[in-house]
């Protein structure tokens, strides 16, 4: 078995409300150039791993939705400020956040990704791993599987899921 990895970048803003903030105070919007590293395992050591498959899966699953987007948690009060209430109810009503789904769309502020939890690197790594695993299992060769996803918010701070 051997391990290969593919690394890419995307730019996004996120909004996080921390539980230690006074009620009614919002956290700041923060912009990041995220780095995402996807590690894969393959049993076939006699031929090179076709990372084109992983690159395409990453583009469709992650970059199309998150590059230059505002990433929010589904319970973030800022959603009420950027969407009309009727649109918010319609948008969130059809999404199964309890199952880890996300909503992607556009608003007056541009592209938006709404996640079931706070958009911090720990949660992004877990979310990306789960979404990518579904696609890899469907599209990649049978001897190929996802090992982990690592997400850097800054050059000095990253989270990996799962931890090996």
TrEMBL record:
Catalytic activity: 7,8-dihydroneopterin 3'-triphosphate + H2O = 6-carboxy-5,6,7,8-tetrahydropterin + triphosphate + acetaldehyde + 2 H(+)
InterPro entries, per the entry: 6-PTP_synth/QueD (IPR007115), 6-PTP_synth/QueD_sf (IPR038418)
A Pfam family recorded for this sequence: PTPS
Pathway the protein takes part in: Purine metabolism; 7-cyano-7-deazaguanine biosynthesis
Enzyme nomenclature, EC number: 4.1.2.50
Highest taxon of source: Bacteria
Enzyme class: lyase
Record-stated family: Belongs to the PTPS family. QueD subfamily.
Designated name of the protein: 6-carboxy-5,6,7,8-tetrahydropterin synthase
Species of origin: Shewanella surugensis
């Amino acid at each position: 078995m051997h391990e290969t990895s593919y690394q890419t970048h995307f730019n996004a803003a996120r909004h996080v409300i921390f539980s230690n903030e006074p009620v009614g105070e919002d956290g700041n919007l923060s912009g990041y150039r995220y780095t995402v590293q996807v590690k894969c395992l393959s049993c076939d050591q006699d031929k090179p791993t076709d990372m084109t498959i992983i690159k395409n899966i990453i583009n469709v699953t992650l970059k199309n939705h998150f590059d230059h987007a505002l990433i929010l948690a589904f319970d973030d009060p800022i959603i009420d400020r950027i969407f009309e209430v009727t649109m918010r109810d319609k948008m969130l009503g059809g999404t199964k956040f309890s199952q880890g789904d996300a909503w992607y769309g556009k608003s007056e502020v541009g592209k938006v990704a709404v996640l079931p939890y706070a958009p911090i690197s720990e949660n992004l790594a877990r979310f990306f791993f789960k979404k990518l695993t579904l696609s890899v299992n469907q599209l990649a060769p049978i001897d190929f599987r996802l090992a982990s996803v690592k997400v850097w918010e800054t050059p000095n701070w990253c989270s990996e899921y799962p931890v090996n």
